[in-house]
Amino acid sequence: MASIASSAIPDSPQWQGDGTSRIPFSVYTSDQLHRRELERFFYRKHWSYVGLEAEIPNQGDFKRTVVGERSVLLVRDKQGAVHVVENVCAHRGMQFCRERHGNRSEFTCPYHQWSYTLSGDLQGVPFRRGVRQDGKVNGGMPADFDLKQNGLTQLKVACRGGVVFASFDHDVESLEDFMGPAILFYFDRLFNGRKLKILGYNRQRIPGNWKLMQENIKDPYHPGLLHTWFVTFGLWRADNKSELKMDKHHRHAAMISTRGQSGKAEQVTQVSSFKESMQLQDDRFLDIVPEAWWGGPSAVMTTLFPSVILQQQVNSVSTRHIQPDGHGAFNFEWTHFGFEDDDAAMTKRRLRQANLFGPAGFVSADDGEVIEFSQRAFESKPAHHTLAELGGREVGDTDHMVTETLIRGMYRYWREVMEDGK
Amino acid sequence: MNTATSAVGSRSSGTGDAGDRQPLRLNPQDYQDLTQMLATYAALVDAADWDAWVAMFTDDCIYKLIPRENYERGLPLATMDFESKGMLMDRAYAIRETLFHDPYYQRHVIGAPRVLEVAADRIVCESNYAVFRTKLSELTQVFNVGRYLDTVVRTEAGWRFASRLCIYDSEMIPNSIIYPV
Predict the structure, then answer these.
(1) Which residues have CB under 8 Å from A87's CB, separation 6+?
(2) Buried b (16+ CB within 10 A) or exposed e, A299-338
(3) What angle do CA A108, A109, A113 make, to 5 degrees?
(4) How far apart are CA A380 and CA A363, in angstroms?
(5) Are residues A360 and B75, on separate chains, in Cβ contact within 8 Å?
(6) What is the DSSP letter of B98?
């Protein structure tokens, strides 16, 4: 044990050996580590989610969003190609676009009217050649000023199945290699080429470190315990057939489950809050209709590190975009969608089941709450650590949910990247 | 983009007989009933009396808490999306029995109703609201701000909400929203 004086506020996370089953509170509380995370996870060598192609269906459509903490614009150009450019004017650095969505033929910064094509190339600078007055030319940009060298920062873009990812790092591996085959399989299962139909947005600000949301969806221990609603109404059962899968780096994961059908739920659930007799007053909240594309599993929750969660919970599908804002908070943006071949009844069903999710959701509202109060404790004693030892201290795929292996896996990757070269 | 009036107009068109329409004037008794009803709603949700909250609605009511962005863009997703008294009862049950949440008080401040449409047994109106949230040991904060768009109907038991849309401006919900607004 370190001395009390030196351990109160540690300079760097104190891991125990090589393991990741005890996670130092300080990984959630340090501004310095947060800046390194932005640099190493959000701005280099990783793809970040930026949106769905269905959000920008027409030429000139754009959506303002973020990669990490940097404002970017997702835009469809006049040829129909998708671009992502940084929302920072090349001239004086202003975040020139304030609308969150819209349609433009070009981008113009209001400050000095510098204008850019939709793909971010600088096309016009007022008074570039100066102003002629009394036979002489006043001012103007230097003769060697080159429009081509002064466009908006253009990100590398990858579209797959209607989902758009971007990276500031043009040397990043392909999106497919980034996900790896196991995770790509579940990505393609959800986004199998059908056109998506946007149903709407929910936005919440959660006062906790962004990694806690990744961990929440890598933690199959809590749903049957925290989310009493799941259990009460029989959606979560201990006889659910389950698998946990990761990519080779253990940064992404999929929690795959198929709803158990055998026997009475009471006998298999083993959770005290289960109330066999409890019935919904209006069971349309759980009017579940299996869909062909499921191929079996009734729920697959996929975490793509670092920026997004892909949700399929029975008929409700959404993306959940993690947008960090300092070490102690993140904005969490839910985009619910359906598919072009949904009939009106299926759209209605997805909207009803959306009551389970989002900032008011029957089974999601409490996730934000527990994250807030985890963060509260981390800030108060950063020298302490969490404990993630359910299912052992190792990292690996499993065929059950009684484990915290995905959290340990994510921190194995975190340590590899964050401790590299210190 | 929808404006408030065109949205209301489109929502209300085709309902009720044309001959049923009256000028936008309520008799004093109905106006008093309406303002009393809106004030009572605030008092009940601020008192966390969820059974009484449910009782203010018709059996096939609509209750939606919906971001202004979705509403104005014609996107159907709502943050809470209930379409029967049963669903409201299910929410009340979840608040009491299943949703873990930090305890908080809410306090509604509601503006005077702007009456948009009047029929014999039906009033469409809107009113601005601000909801403040106070958590134990914390400073009070502005929690959710928007407008109610209501359709209230006269029943044998008195005026009830046939539809209450809470269309909120607030861009970010401060973490979770547990109680109905």
Answers:
(1) A64, A71, A72, A73, A95, A96, A97, A152
(2) bbbbbbbbbbbbbbbbbbbbbbbbbbbebbbbbbbbbbbb
(3) 80
(4) 28
(5) no
(6) I
What does the alpha-carbon distance between residue B169 and residue A359 come to, in Å, rounded to a whole number? 15
Give CA–CA dist B145/B148, Å, rounded.
10
Q: What span, in angstroms and rounded, lies between the C-alpha atoms of A167 and A85? A: 10
* pLDDT per position as a tens digit, A34-83: 999 999 999 999 999 999 999 999 999 999 999 999 999 999 999 999 99
Residue B142 near chain A (CB below 8 Å): no
To the question of pTM greater than 0.90 for the whole model, the response is yes
pLDDT at A274 (0 to 100): 53
Angle, CA B144 vertex, CA B140 and CA B146 arms, to 5°: 140
DSSP A152-203: PPBPEEEEETTEEEEES-TTPPPHHHHH-HHHHHHHHHHSSSPPEEEEEEEE
**Residue B8 predicted with pLDDT over 50:** no
Question: What are B142's strand-pairing partners?
Answer: B132
Q: Is A202 in Cβ contact with B79 (below 8 Å)?
A: yes
Structural contact between residues B148 and B64, judged by C-beta atoms closer than 8 angstroms: no
Does the bond joining A306 to the residue before it have cis omega, within 30 degrees of 0?
A: yes
Nearest residue of A to residue B82, measured between CA atoms: A352
Tokens of A335: 């985009």
Output the six-digit token pair for A267.
């006998």
Distance between CA atoms of residues A99 and B73, nearest Å: 14
- Which tokens sit at A243? 């698998």
B61 touches chain A (CB under 8 A): no
Q: Whole-angstrom Cα distance, residue A236 to residue A218?
A: 16
Cβ neighbours of residue B13 under 8 Å, at least 6 residues apart? none
Poorest-confidence range of A224-228, A281-285, A408-412?
Answer: A224-228
A379 conformational bin, left if phi > 0, alpha if psi -120 to 50, beta if neither: alpha
Q: To the nearest whole angstrom, how far is the Cα of A351 from the nearest Cα of chain B?
A: 6
At A142-172, the pLDDT tens digits run: 999 999 999 999 999 999 999 999 999 999 9
CB pairs under 8 A between A and B: 121
CB A246 within 8 A of CB A407: no
Any CB–CB contact under 8 A between A360 and chain B? yes
- Beta carbons of A365 and B176 less than 8 Å apart: yes
Closest CA to A317 of A114, A112, A52: A52
